[in-house]
Amino acid sequence: MPEQTVSPWLWFGLAVGQILLILIWILLSLAFLLWGDRKIWAGVQMRKGPNVVGPFGLFQSFADFLKFVLKEVVVPAGADKAVFLLAPLLSFTLAFGAWAVIPLAPGWVIADLNVGILYVLAISSLGVYGIIMGGWASNSKYPFLGALRSAAQMVSYEVSIGFVIITVILLAGTMNLTELVEKQAGWLWNWNVFGGGLANLPIALVMIPMMVIFYISALAETNRPPFDLPEAESELVAGYQVEYSSTPYLLFMIGEYANIVLMCAMISVLFFGGWNPGFPTPFLESWPATAQSIFFFLVFFAKIIFWFFMFAMAKAIVPRYRYDQLMRLGWKVFLPTTLVAVALVAGWRVYGGAL
Fold this sequence. Notes:
Layout: H1 8-44, H2 60-70, H3 81-97, H4 116-137, H5 141-172, H6 177-182, H7 204-221, H8 233-236, H9 246-271, H10 289-317, H11 323-351
Helix pairs in contact: 1-9, 1-10, 2-9, 3-4, 3-9, 4-5, 5-7, 5-11, 7-9, 7-11, 9-10
């Protein structure tokens, strides 16, 4: 029989459809997660939070979206107009670009790269350019100071995030995110946070602190409280986005929240087994393939929601750091701790089996 070749147009159409599907899922998730963020904050402060638009205020995010879209775009007279408008677009695009390698369920990934972890690191580190461009193009002191703070903060905490990820790579022996999740299949103790299997359980004494450091660094990397110093309203009015309004401001905010959810997904994939529920799933063998994938996807989404809740609780209950405290934590505490952890995990991988 002659070989059947897939039409390039069909392949292109399927790829675009896949991308649009994940993009729409992220945007809809952000709408409800943002509502949840506001509700959690309100609950901690004993307020009601958004409760008018839709049942329980569920459609508040959609009302806010319409408000931003319909408002006039105001560009300051002294601003560099092209860079001013390009900056939020760049932040938005890069925030969603990183999702290309995140495996949502078995086979549910846009680009199954062998160096998926490096891709996420590269894209997330480029995100700072949108913030610097926005601060500089505004032609005002406060946004520029906010942008410089953000650049220093993101670079500082990317270093510790990088070393934490190296410990996971050493433990799993792969940089492919799908393989990383597959290696954590089975019982709970196979997750990387517990060392990736009963044989590696002693290394959990290193991996649990690494998970905590990754979580705290992710807060700093995404400019979330208590590390929201680039937009500290008591000092900088509103940070790098003070001159923005309407749709450009909306793009900045969507980009910021997409990065937060990305970090929730990354901590789930790297440490908590991704789509694996923490127990064997032989009962799924009789299910259709699509139903199996949906089950695993819902497990993964539940983990993302849990970590988003943790981000929201940190925002609600932890007071803001001073800038010198933030830098000291990053360079004098997290950097040496993660370096020692890399040496310990590497030593365990080489000599652990002989102990």
